[in-house]
Amino acid sequence: MNDASSLPLRGRILVVDDQRNMRATTALLLRAAGHTVSEAATGEEALGLLAGGGVDLLLTDLKMEPMDGLTLLKRALEVAPRLQVILMTAFGSIESAVEAMRLGAYDYVTKPFKESEVRYRVERALERAGLLSAVNMFSGEFNQRHGLSALVGSSPAMLELKTRLVRVAQSDATVLIQGESGTGKELVARALHAQSRRSTKPFVPVNCAAISETLLESELFGHAKGAFTGAVKTRRGLFEEADGGTLFIDEVTETSPAFQSKLLRTLQEGEVRRVGESTSLRVDVRTAAATNRDIELEVQEKRFRQDLYYRLNVVTLRVPPLRERLEDVPALAKHFLERSNARSPRPRQLSASAVAHLMGYAFPGNVRELENLIEQAAALAEGDELQAEDFPIRPQTKAAAPAGNGHVSLVESPGARIPTLAEMVDEAERRAIAQSLERNGTDLARVAEELGISSTTLWRKMKRLNLRPPGDVGRE
């Protein structure tokens, strides 16, 4: 039986092309696929239709008169910021494609194109439009009330995180939040709590790495008067403080096996026993745990209990590092600068050169590093507009290298020069192929289908970029 989620998405599409035959043929193809299609012969006509709303995807020719496709792209996104745009061109070049993506296009396709290619790219664009719609249900006051506004970014990685978070929030399932240091794992936990039915109850965070092992048990479970030296009175633990709400246990992999055993019992039984007492207390707590380590490796190395891992890992939320969502840097930088301006008598602005400079950096410290850079620049800059030179960072290039498990990973290497356009395009292709290989392994036909290219093109690109499927190390 077919699942409804597996059915092709149907969307409202506007096709713009000054060549009537091409426009009509493309529209006919999309209508045959079940989409609702409008047509426009000029950019101005298209903008008039977009102003009325109700369009999910704009499919426009690049070379048109008097308004070309890039100009239409910029003006269309001003009218409808969440609109998905695919550019069609018979005069395609890497430069025009990169410029289109930089200006906000979702994709581009080169004429003459195959019907299957257009349908594939359109379906992908509509999937992203659907994700945006799901997340934007929580905008405005609702978003403020439910905490999603704290998760800044609309990149595919962030949209996936937000959508998954929305789905799991209403359950009481234990959530494991994984991500590098500085990615915002606690913000994700707070958003999870704010959207849950427990949002009116306490959210209690604890960082296991910040508390000594001898005090951690008392901190979480509480203690009786006289249980140890300095216990001058009975104290409730954080599990009790969080009763009815959410307890966020950060850096859970920093704990000892002995503590992990006690934590496991509490999660299984739903009750805590204070240090120095023999009776247990019932607690109703939703638990979210976080770590910046490879927790599966910790289990394999016997540093983390496998049974506790399974108890915590009911649902996983992965917070992407900033280098995987550099398209969110402008929004994040603006967000942090607005917060800084609210505390400063001298408001600052970000120049285009500063934003471009920040987007060329790989951010090993992730979002926290970006926030610190903005704070520092706002405090020390001489002018009211922050320039590239106000940020003491060097652009970095990335090189693909096989990780120890045979999978392709991206390795950061600092460099003094700004990468060329061709290098940036190669890196974008390398990243897209590497991520698809991670998902699909040795099924190259599936990888090619997912990327919207032929198997021959995929093989040629992999050879040029020195990429191999997982598990294919050493094979020529």
TrEMBL record:
Sigma-54 factor interaction domain residues: 151-379
Keyword Disulfide bond in annotation: no
GO molecular function terms attached to this record: ATP binding; sequence-specific DNA binding
GO terms for biological process, alphabetical: phosphorelay signal transduction system; regulation of DNA-templated transcription
Pfam families found in the cross-reference section: AAA_lid_14 (PF25601), HTH_8 (PF02954), Response_reg (PF00072), Sigma54_activat (PF00158)
Keyword presence, RNA-binding: no
Domain Response regulatory: 12-126
Keywords from the UniProt entry: ATP-binding, DNA-binding, Nucleotide-binding, Phosphoprotein, Transcription, Transcription regulation
Taxonomic superkingdom: Bacteria
Modified residue annotations for 4-aspartylphosphate: D61
InterPro entries given in the database record: AAA+_ATPase, AAA_lid_NorR, CheY-like_superfamily, Homeodomain-like_sf, HTH_Fis, P-loop_NTPase, Sig_transdc_resp-reg_receiver, Sigma_54_int
Name of protein: Sigma54 specific transcriptional regulator, Fis family
Protein species of origin: Stigmatella erecta
Phylogenetic placement of the source organism: Bacteria, Pseudomonadati, Myxococcota, Myxococcia, Myxococcales
